[in-house]
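REVIEWER CHECKLIST
Item 1: Sequence provided? yes
Item 2: Single chain? yes
Item 3: Sequence as submitted:
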Amino acid sequence: MAQRARFNTGGSSGEPLIFYIGKERVSHDVAAKWRATRWWDVDIGDREIVVWGSPIELGAQDGVRAIRDRLFRTRLLPAFEMSEQKLDRFLGEIRAMRPKMLFGYPSALSHIARHAEVNGWHMDDLGIQVAFVTSERLYDEQRQQISQTFACRVANGYGGRDAGFIAHECPQGGMHITAEDIIVEIVDNQGAPSPDGEPGEIIVTHLATRDFPFIRYRTGDIGVLDSKPCVCGRGLPVLKEIQGRSTDFLVAQSGTVIHGLALIYILRDMPQVRSFKIIQESLDLTRVWVVTETRLSSEETAKIERGFKARLGQAVNIVIEEMAEIPPEKSGKFRYVVSKVTSA
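Item 4: Structure as written out by the authors:
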């Protein structure tokens, strides 16, 4: 039997999936990653800062990783350690290394960028060409923050250790599917194919997984296929939108499914709110964790409650909790919205 490595998903939306990956699968995913990387005029061996939190990268093989990182001129920064002191150290290391590319979670890179802006770190003169982000939804304000702080383009990637390297953004903005290895389907709640242009769950079949097949694997993500080719001229099919995980959506008391952005913008429009997390516990209870510059006034608290109730239902109990810090997931990722309610 071919040698396989054991992995598991984070289990953020249920019980973790345990699965195995062989060398064939690894080689195909790595090849797809570096093909997409070269679209942005950077290559293997160019200086790179990686902001990551997976135990696979940060675990037992520290010595081997250190040798590999020196060879490939890569520096790994732990995404789950985001104290003020750590952020200053990260910025110092980025300035000292002057990488050509950054790689990491969009929430982590935008958090570092925002800290630099607030604390007067000038990071726009380092020659960084591109910041690659993956593993989370990339929000427009995150793209803008990263691009502005580091004076670089931002390239979005979509995939995971389970489903593989599904798609990557090109410089012209198309999210190209790795069609040589991966079949992407979009299906509705009944499992029937959704027409091009209509949202549905992203289902993936990976063709380079003979050791441990992934056939019509439900990603839990919501996306839209594009019927038009990208203007860049690449012949790969295109994902028009990746709207987020199914748990990034909330369910109003009326049964209406709404995107988390409907609530996110309420908090984003409040300048004193530094960070937040929205947790829908049930149809009747939603928690809002916020970190603020100054304590919220009764008027500001009432404004949040009114906005949330207007979207979720007037009878919903909105519990606002002011916190010193919002912890990321164990992986180092950060999720703005978590819903524990299943839509009908």
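Item 5: Key structural point noted by reviewer: The chain has a mean pLDDT of 86.
Item 6: Recommendation: ____
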